[in-house]
Amino acid sequence: MPNDEHFDDRLRQTAKRSLQARASDVNTATALAEHRARLDAARPATSRDRRLLSAAAAGIVVIAGIAAIAWPREDNDPGTVATETVVPAPASTGPTRVTTEPAATPATETTMAAPRDSTPTTSSLEVVDAPADQITLLMIGERRVEALASLDGFTATHSIETTRGSNRTPQLRVQEITALSDGRIWSEDEQGSWTSIDPASGLYRGAYAQGFGDLTYQALTDRTDFVLGGLILALKSGHDPTWPIDQLDDAGVVIENTTLDGRETWTVFARSESAEFDIQSETTWVVDVDTGLIVEYVFSKWEDGQDGQENRFRSTLTDLRPADELPDDFPRQFPEGADVDVEEQFDHSNGHRLVPLEQAVAEFSPGLVVPTGVSDDATVTLYDRSLDNPGSNYPAGYEEVRIITRRGFDFTTVTVTKFIPIDGATLTVGEVQCYDLDKDGRCDPFGVQDNVERGALSGRDLWVAGGAITISDVGRTIRITDSDVERARELAETFVDI
Amino acid sequence: MIDCSFEECFHEHFPRMVALGESMTGDCGIAHDIAQEAFIRLHDHWDTVREFDQPGSWLRRVMSNLLIDHHRSRSAERRAVERLATSPRRESSEVEPDEWSQLVAGLPARQRLIVTLFYGQDLAIAEISESLDISENTVKSALSKARDTLRARMEPRHAQ
Do B151 and A58 touch (CB under 8 A)? Predict the structure, then answer.
């Protein structure tokens, strides 16, 4: 047996050889250009705004909608899937491949350009004859919200294909995935990897195929964030099938009526180009008309700094069908004697638990304010976080209560956060404190300003941004996210102190 | 206080952060993405961090937190989806596993990170403790467990 010192030397040499080789492959000039592009994309938002946008994005993924879903019928009657917004199509010579030649207008922060080459960004997607120029993201958004809200669950074959540059063989991962609207998710692949997620118990279990053909096992507890559904769907699916695509800018996209895997779909296509850094990208979302799910997401990027070849990520759901139950052995036990990694729960950033509303009221120190008529089915999560991440602008710790009401895969989320002042960046206006990170002597805006007129929050400043409502109150901030911002706005008028 | 520009700091530290990320994730695209996130945060805090003697330690801590967060939730795709409307992104692309990656594959994430920082980046136990915000005893314990596992894997190879 080698002695420890010799063994350590061997490990050190192996590790350094590997890391140095990897580091030497990094093109820092290209990376720095990308860094600047990311900074530019984030401006003029402040750091806090960016954080809020990130939080909003996290919230956005839980937003969806309402109404009847019609799975494809045997007779394939287009009347069951078309909405009144879809106009009859002109005659067509038959389905053709998508060749992505959009006559696009500039997006907000990017410019649209002709594709670098004619590489199709979709595989089995076919264009159907349709006056797609009359379809808007708003129309798609309304339909998907309606469909998702009545979707109890689905199962599908999920494929992720990644291609990087000209010298890489595309890599393909395939798994079967089932997701129910209560947040439970199951997935399994041919390599033996599997994952079970049960938000009711906060338990996440997984087996992952590693090198040497081994499986490693992981169990996470108190993962109550899984109730957010969309996040975990994104995690398991490679893309979030419930992502609110209508948040995109109509002016920057091209929409086509298509079919994918025999299902009627809308394809939304966007292209961006950074002339300064010679990075071009194309993004495609394929929305299933019946379910409202995004069944394919494709992102392609070309960078001159990376040999100008296409890097592509494609995530596709096929063989989509309704589901209302999971395998009998869900959430599945680990094998006897398995070495399960259960050490991933770090206390400093994830102190949260599902609690009854009464307990949240008792424990939330600023006092809780909630909308009238919180459903008995609502999920209440109490957070007591202490973020010790030096990259974060958040104060060292904060308390938060999140109440989620479900409608299928659609959600309304009410989040009440204790306000914690930041030294040198906090103003007091009347009774309410606010952040002034840009130090212009005014409260940093969250969006378009308004006032609450009724209820416990009457008279407070209210901000509308995207699908979110933010209200500044004494000692606390209330945020409401909903697929219908008007519904969120109305909810703001119904709060009561409890 | 360091005496270099942000760009110089970027050129010096970015490759190391990517290498650390690739060792942890086995995915070049994800490693780049997380490293970019770390440098976005560095940019936001540059006025403060530039006062430090060792900005690399601050970066390692941010990077470590991000990597652990990534592993915990396996949420690279989620982050990408959240960002895609506003930011260029690098796509998932698995890298060919090298000797070290194969060796540490299968170790729990925290052990993998600790042995990589210890052996690959020459961090002292106290520095790892500081970087990961865990006690030195926890670092030692994880290092010991990881070393035992790695020894069991390596000995058959070197016994020949």
Answer: no
* Contact: B75, A210; criterion CB under 8 Å: no
pLDDT band of residue A379 (cuts 50, 70, 90) is: confident
pLDDT at A310 over 60: yes
What is the C-alpha to C-alpha distance for residues A225 and B43, in angstroms, rounded to an integer? 29
Nearest-5° angle of CA B37, CA A177, CA B21? 25
Distance CA A32, CA A25 (A): 14
Q: In this predicted model, which residue has the larger pLDDT, A214 or A172? A: A172
Q: What is the pLDDT of residues B89-133, one digit of tens each?
A: 333 344 556 778 778 877 777 788 888 888 888 788 887 877 777
Q: B15 CB near a chain A CB, below 8 Å?
A: yes
Looking at every residue in chain A, the average pLDDT score rounds to 71
The CA distances from residue A342 to A307, A339, A348, B109, in Å, are 42, 9, 16, 10
Separation between Cα atoms, residue A415 and residue A419, nearest integer Å: 12
Quickly tell me which residue has 């053909």 as its tokens. Answer: A213
Q: Which of A 103-122 lie inside 8 A of B, CB atoms?
A: 109
Q: Tell me whether 0.85 is exceeded by the ipTM.
A: no
CA A427 to chain centroid: 33
Indicate the Cα dihedral angle B84, B85, B88, B91, nearest 10°. Answer: 20
* Residues A233, A185 contacting (CB under 8 angstroms): yes
Check CB contact under 8 Å for A344 and B45: no
pLDDT tens readout for residues A74-111: 222 222 222 222 222 222 222 222 222 222 222 222 22
What single letter denotes the amino acid at residue A173? R
Tell me: the pLDDT tens digits for A181-206? 888 889 998 888 898 888 777 777 88
* Cβ distance of B119 and A11 shorter than 8 Å: yes
| Alpha carbons A347 and A466: distance in angstroms, whole number | 32
- Distance CA(A262)–CA(A267), nearest Å, equals 14
Nearest CA in chain B to A213: B106
Instruction: Tell me, yes or no, if A247 comes closer than 8 A to chain B by beta carbon.
Output: yes
Measured between beta carbons, which residues in chain B are less than 8 angstroms from residue A39? 40, 43
